[in-house]
């Protein structure tokens, strides 16, 4: 059955993203040329420019794909928990685990703020990771285990804390030791946000 133009367009976009993602993850944005990407995808520069405008546009698509996958992964893990405290206990290590993957560390945390600009990076983060934190805090407030009123400012502080925690682990001489210290200190800091039910 003949494919529609929409199907062909989607297939071309997917091919470019599939080719670019491992390259960006392994060598970083600056270490990959547009010509390499289109060659690996079996396409032309014209296809890249038509669908993404330029390499930066393609990078953004890769970044958003990873963000969506991470959010879905962490949300699915939290959905298995019976209550809000259990969801929070699952979310933290799940986030730290995901962000230690070389692809995520390189694309999401190292390159994206520079390549896309801080404002664009934060706006996209707000659609995914920050939304998860906001939702979790609203749930915690409803369950009576949040010591303060939920707010976007509070969620942003928590998110920034988690991103810094990830970077501490990533750049440590002993990541395993740093992970233990990070989790212990995060536990201390986060405990001030929560209270016993009622």
UniProtKB/TrEMBL annotation:
A Pfam family this chain is assigned to: TetR_C_41
> Where does the HTH tetR-type domain lie?
10-70
* The UniProt record lists the keyword Iron: no
Tell me which domain of life the UniProt entry assigns to the organism this sequence originates from: Bacteria
Any keyword Transcription?
yes
GO MF annotations in UniProt: DNA-binding transcription factor activity; transcription cis-regulatory region binding
Keyword annotations for this protein?
DNA-binding, Transcription, Transcription regulation
**InterPro entries, per database record:** DNA-bd_HTH_TetR-type_CS (IPR023772), Homeodomain-like_sf (IPR009057), HTH-type_TetR-like_transc_reg (IPR050109), HTH_TetR (IPR001647), Rv0078-like_C (IPR049484)
Q: Which residues bind DNA?
A: 33-52
Which residue windows are coiled coil? none
Q: This chain belongs to which protein, by name?
A: Transcriptional regulator, TetR family
Organism name: Kibdelosporangium aridum
